[in-house]
Amino acid sequence: MTTVVLLVALAFVAVAGFVVVATPDPRRQAITLSLFSLCLALLFFALQAPDVALSELAVGSAVVPLLVLLTIRKVGGR
């Protein structure tokens, strides 16, 4: 059972990573980066690392996309 959960989590991470790379618009890429971080947090939780999962959830899903969006706004969306 745990092998199936890990394979599904790894598949979600792989698909989300591809979606981040394939997204051309930087604003949408920041949103997909947040979803990628959520998938990583689920993978870390499945790997029995809840402290790493919580850190990824806080930093990767909230702080990094926010900083990217603020940077895009400051630069002017070039």
TrEMBL record:
Transmembrane as UniProt keyword: yes
Residues that span the membrane, as ranges: 6-23, 30-47, 53-72
Record-annotated MrpA C-terminal/MbhD domain positions: 12-75
Membrane topology reported for the UniProt record: Multi-pass membrane protein
Keyword match Transmembrane: yes
A Pfam family reported for this protein in Swiss-Prot or TrEMBL: MbhD
Keywords (A to Z) from UniProt: Cell membrane, Membrane, Transmembrane, Transmembrane helix
InterPro entries: MrpA_C/MbhD
Compartments where found: Cell membrane
Organism superkingdom: Bacteria
Protein name as annotated: DUF4040 domain-containing protein
Species, as recorded: Amycolatopsis nalaikhensis
